[in-house]
Amino acid sequence: MGQITLPGNPPIAVNLRRSAQARRLSLRLSQIDGRVTLTMPRRLPEREALGFLREKEAWLRSHLEARGEDVRIGPGARLPVEGAEREIRVGTGRAVRLGEGWIEVPGSEDRTAARLQGWLRTLARDRLAEASDRYAFALGRPYTRLTLRDTRSRWGSCTADGALMYSWRLVLAPPEVLGYVAAHEVAHLAEMNHSRAFWAVVERLYGDWRAPRRWLRDEGGALHRYRFGD
User: pLDDT, tens digit, for every residue of 67-105?
Assistant: First the structure.
């Protein structure tokens, strides 16, 4: 995969991917890392690809602007915790402290991101385990284990043997969004599909799931903008 640059202010780096299966040009902007990828037929000249990019420039720049820049976690940065934005501050003592509009992280500043990420993962596990336990009890089907990852392509999953996996970044989202994802994955313990029967189970466990699902579709990508040194 090569790279070309779309001139302008600022210039936009575009990863060029040639594909034998591609029959036309297609442009993709990753909401996770802001990477722009242009997929093109294998023998199409690059000048045609650049012309296509110029045609899509207004669309591309508007979506890049809407996505916003990545946020490096450290003192002074702002981070949502359970849907409420907080300013990160250097704290005293031994424990991370959460207040109205702020979060204090003790220790040296160069360890702020790592300590805060560890605290968030613990909070995420507590919230997701509580929700998963509650929904699994209501469903009458236990799960076998629960793991957390920093997944880029999905918010959760359920395997055929009843193992649940979630993105720990769900703890950054509003609580109702985290609750919906837990209900969605637990529902797969009964229905390993996305049939009408599956969505009926989700609704029985959670209630009206449409608003949190829409939030994830529209806003969820922004949760990956927060960089903890990775």
Answer: 777 899 999 999 999 999 999 999 999 999 999 999 999
pLDDT band at 217 (very low <50, low <70, confident <90, very high): confident
- Whole-number Cα distances in Å, 125 to 22, 24, 161: 41, 44, 20
Find out whether 171 and 81 touch, Cβ atoms under 8 Å: yes
Identify the domain containing residue 139 by its residue range: 120-227
Structural domains in the chain (count): 2
Name the pLDDT band for 1 (thresholds 50, 70, 90): low
Residue 172 lies in a domain: yes
The residues pairing with 96 across neighbouring beta strands, listed in sequence order, are none
Question: DSSP 3-state assignment of 157?
Answer: strand
Q: Domain check: are 124 and 211 in the same one?
A: yes
- Amino acid (one-letter) located at 136: A
Do β-strands 226-227 and 71-72 pair in parallel, antiparallel, or remain unpaired? parallel
Same domain, 124 and 215: yes
Burial of 109: CB neighbours in 10 Å, binned 0-12, 13-18, 19+: exposed
Distance CA 121, CA 1 (A): 35
State residue 44's pLDDT score.
83
**pTM (predicted TM-score):** 0.78
The sign one gets for the Cα dihedral 40, 19, 61, 14 is: negative
For the chain, the maximum distance between any two Cα atoms, rounded to a whole number of angstroms, is: 62
| Phi, psi for residue 129 in degrees, rounded to 5 | -65, -45
